[in-house]
Specification:
The structure holds two protein chains of two kinds. Helices cover 55% and strands 9% of the residues of chain A. Chain A is an alpha+beta fold. Chain B: It is found in: Golgi apparatus; Cytoplasmic vesicle membrane.
Chain lengths: 1100, 418
Amino acid sequence: MSTTALYNDQQGGAEAAVEAGQESTATSSSSGAAFGLFSTDFKKNEDLKEMLESNKESLKLEAMKRIVQLISKGKNASDLFPAVVKNVASKNIELKKLVYVYLVRYAEEQQDLALLSISTFQRALKDPNQFIRASALRVLSSIRVPIIVPIMMLAIKEAASDLSPYVRKTSAHAIQKLYSLDADQKEQLIEVIEKLLKDKSTLVAGSVVMAFEEVCPDRIDLIHRNYRKLCNLLVDVEEWGQVVIINMLTRYARTQFTSPWKEDGIFDENEKAFYDSDSEEKQGQREAKPYIMDPDHRLLLRNTKPLLQSRNTAVVMAVAQLYWHLAPKHEVSIVTKSLVRLLRSHREVQYVVLQNIATMSIQRKGMFEPYMKSFYVRSTDATHIKTLKLEILTNLANEANISTILREFQTYVKSQDKAFAAATIQAIGRCATNISEVTDTCLNGLVLLLSNRDETVVAESVVVIKKLLQTQPTQHSDIIKHMAKLFDNITVPMARASILWLMGEYCERVPKIAPDVLRKMAKTFTAEEDIVKLQTVNLAAKLYLTNSKQTKLLTQYILNLGKYDQNYDIRDRTRFIRQLIVPSEKSGALNKYARRILLASKPAPVLESAFKDRDRFQLGTLSHSLNIKTTGYQELSDWPAVAPDPSVRNVEVIEPVQEWAPSLGKAKKPKSDDKFYSDDEEKDEEGSGSGSEDSSSSSSSGSSEESGSESEEESSRDLEKTSSDSEKSSSGSEASSSESESQQKEKKRAKKVTPRKSKQTAADSGSDENGNGPLGKTSSSSAESSSSEESDSSEDSDSDSPAPQKKTVGKTKPKVEVKSKKEVSLLDLDDFSPAPPSAPKSSVFSSSLLSDLEGLSLSNVSSAMQVTTSSFGPVKTYELLHHMTGKGLSAKYHFPRQPCLYQPSMVAVQVILTNSSDHSLEEIHIGDRSPASLNVHCFNTVERLEPGASVSVSMGIDFSDSTQAANFQLCTKEDQFSVSIQPAVGELVMPSTMKEPDFCSEQRKLMGMNETSATIAMATANTSKQNISKQVLSVANVGVVSSDQNNLQRFAGRTVSSGALVLVTLELRESSTALLTINTEKTVMASMLLRDLKQALYQA
Amino acid sequence: MINSLFLISHSGDIFLEKHWKSVISRSVCDYFLEAKEKAGDPENVAPVLQTPHHYLISIYRGKLFFLSVTQTEVPPLFVIEFLHRVADTFQDYFGDCSEVLIKENTVTVYELLEEMLDNGFPLATESNVLKEMIRPPTILRSVVNTLTGGSNVGGTLPTGQLSNVPWRRAGVKYTNNEAYFDVIEEIDAILDKSGTTVFAEIQGVIEACVKLTGMPDLTLSFMNPRLLDDVSFHPCVRFKRWESEHVLSFIPPDGNFRLMSYHVSSQNLVAIPVYVKQNISFLETGSCGRLDITIGPKQTMGKTVESLMVTIPMPKSVLSVNLTATQGTYTFDLTTKVVLWDVGKLNPQKLPNLRGSISIQTGAPKPEENPSINIDMKLQQLAISGLKVSRLDMYGEKYKPFKGVKYVTKAGKFQVRT
């Protein structure tokens, strides 16, 4: 007390010092003098004070170390405050840190003196070293002095926009501290939180969410726009932050998404029915509308799943509870394995995890049943672990495994840990009531236990038997008799009382024995425990009512004994019973009802789990562990009936693609990436090889054209049906899909009549098989991919044909014409790389293979490398979605190089969707796209894709003559995957037919700025005219302009979107060089095209 | 989150306290001490306790209680995991986590705790980061420090705090670049009286000691990764690579760390390396009993069973034992009533045997249950699951590291019921 008084005197001085912003040596020395008045207690630390006053750093440090030791022991060192606080600006970092420790510990008690240090921190907040700025803010915010709240507020605001994420993290921590100091600052702090929530640094995310949880957990609206970012950052956030974010997102998701449990109410009906039919099921039946999971909901589930593999048990538990509370019921079981794994961890971890498993296992036995043996008890387990394991085993018991469990329980009953043995008996009792098949077995087993030597075991058995008999009172009079026989040997009061109660309750079933037991009790009444006496009185009363002839005297004797008992409870009871059963004048009306009162049938006790009601708390919380509502516990809200507007989570900023695959972004090098992909590609190629073998002879002609023809079919259908598209995608029924199929066929029939496509009809029958029958076609994936390559090869053979100009006229025509040749090349394809027979082909193949690999290795980095052809070389297939990222859905695309039918300004893209998962995927369609202005013609929703099946769909994308990637989402019923298509510049061109003179005149118009040229070196193999055109056409989708000049080659094309001419001239020079000239208005395209051509010609 | 931390010795002495928010009086520990009294064995104290105003979450490590006090809702595992991390850090810094060592290094402990938590929320828990801020005490350094007045505290922000590989510090240099991996598997098993397996599974860990210069990027692949049923990784392991290719790709922390732990599915039959023939019986009268145990090799995959140790916790009523061991020595602890038989190497030609009589307190009833037998053993150069590391590749650095893999199989919780 005196301290405060003294300090108050100095307050003026201290404040002045703060205002002056100086280090107040004067003040502190005067305060040191003031300490002179202090009690003897102070003298103890006199030497420390002297050390602190000295000039030697090492002495000061030594003193501070001793002071910290005092603090750590909980001893009061507050009287040294003035001496310590002087050193707050010390140069020695360790000394300074120890002063900080001291300051934070005692500032609250010595507020005025603490103010002396503030200016130092204010200065440090401006330090160029981020570490110093951060620690200054840390200490400043830890000083719990209300006066400096405005200073703290200012510092926090400033730090929140600091360049260093570490400082911003510190400011997030400071928010909580300030809030606990002064809750009035809430509004301002929320602003800072809002700002920090937008932070993209993984360092900040965890801390700011913590601040959010502490300051404004109800401001769910702040999360909306950061939801996706948080989901995506999650994997890279430090582990402690992960726990906090996951818990927050669990709460968030419960307010924003609709319940995923409705759809599979049937799934766990059999599980649920046993306990209580849940309301969810009823809801599920009421709502016939199929449930479609919000993609954001799915995103959360998907991004948290890898965290189950975390080494941090808290993270694993957090994910487990998230799945428990948010995932569709059939997905929850993926957490089981990880939870069971945690049981290998420390005892304390086991305890908490077992508690949670106990709650989970009540509702969902199936989840943990396969791991039942992991819950077997070891004699070395701690008692509370044993009991929890027992609890879980009991919950897991069902008809199938009960015999195993009971055998295990038999071992436990013999345990030296008697408390545990008793718990086991309780558990056996529960199994017996829950599973009627084993009730008798259990009862018999328990009866056997009655002859056990250990009293607690016997007592517990009696109690459990009593409860069991109560549920089935009609049988088992022999057990009651057996118990009566044992009665003399049982000494545990509770057990004796239980037997007496049983005798009384079922005295009519054992009419001979009951009075005899009462006779024995009358003899020993005075020596019994109170609880036994009470039951004796009870038994006497019941027997008096049922069998008064034999027991009247006995009853009276016992009642008399009871009347004079020392215990007032017993005297009381005796008086009451006497009035009730013995008719007299005073007793009156009650007497008539004695029988009904005493011998009323009593409801059987329900033996249920102690964890029955724990599910009201969120799993993994402290509240759940303690089974009470703790301070600050946030209720998990029920699912909303109707989901709030999901668009609130949309963010205008285009998110970089890699953010969608967060783990890949984790310091992952491209090297590992391409290995990953190329491996996969190889596999695919293998698959396609074998596939083509099967289909080579018969359906090859059809399948080679399949891609083209189908895209046209779909497109023609689309032209009519674009408006109904959206409707169709929303309805998930089989009927509509089959309907659309039939429509498709109809269209096709109609199409056959149209003269333009008449040439295709031959191929149509084949494509019907392949293109329209994806359902249930297991091998079609390989067939599909092979078909793309088949078409390539067929086009290869075209290149050998003498009239390449024809291609510009119409694409379909030459294909039909060269059908016979195609077959030859197809056979070649079968052995693909090993030994292609003809030389030119081999060069094409090897080069394409090479470019394939190159394209793969760099496909994400530079699109310029990607090589495709319309009529030459294999069409390069790109990966759109890998089946690992796509949860089984994989997508590949290639550019068929055909005019897009949806809109002339679009580039046609052929997408092959393959389902490599083990369940069918439904409603595959295209979702959001970015940029939003992106003009995409989507393919029709694929209603259903069976496992192993694949389907080829075509879409059109307007790239607006730029190589900017088109980003969009590929959606299935449950999932959304962000994918992007980045076109090679050569794909943005369409071939244009032109005579040589026209070409020259056009070229003349596009001189100067519009001309780009370069001298290029060419591989010697490329100097032949054929090979050059092959290479050029492989890069760009242009048309050959026939020319009679031997050293000149000309190609013409138009950009797809704007129709600008693109003229390519290649003038051969000596020694394998050539002058490459490109004339076009689109100069950017020209330079890119130039680069691609240069590379292609040089390489081959 | 975590409000205060108290370290309490086995005997109930509160010898260190640290507060991150307002000071909470140490009298709050009384509730805990009361619970500890009631539980008897410190292992039996419930880790989560409730008092009128606070919640107590504690762990028991190295005969010490780490008791944290919190006032609001917090995931209990969060606190427990953190407390274990604190204990791990102490172990890392001082070689062991014991009362004496902590008392000796109070200042370092305090500095560590200050850095590990800010306002009760974990700040830096990576040992690499901490070691850059607060250097572990060594004799040499303390001598140098006293002479020069230098300090153990770093003045700059550890690089790990900011980088996306917080577990590794920058600028690591070694003259001998080496990477060692120990595949350690433990067999958890319960065998019943007749020797049949009630329950058995294999839990494995890969402990690594990596001393490599610079920022190496390692890839560790297995011959048979499909064997692994459930895995958990150090944060450095790229999960996606594992998912897609079943290889471990990571930038390793510097020094010792646990790369992964795994579980081998119990569907695979677990090879049990030894069998135990036992006969323990207590006579109905005469207050004595007999014990006869023989251990022999079962499925050892051609390796020798080493450091075989048998622990038998006897019933409390046992007074003394009089046994003879054909191999090794045995001890009987009178207070804990534990028979400990140190067998050593298991010789298949001459099976070790322990037999003799047990005397029980006169008058005490015959023990209900025979004691269970706990077995400890080691098999060198063998991973009992058959897991094999196929190769270790290093990217990102030019030099050629020295690589080594060691396999050990141990008995985990290996119990024979009798």
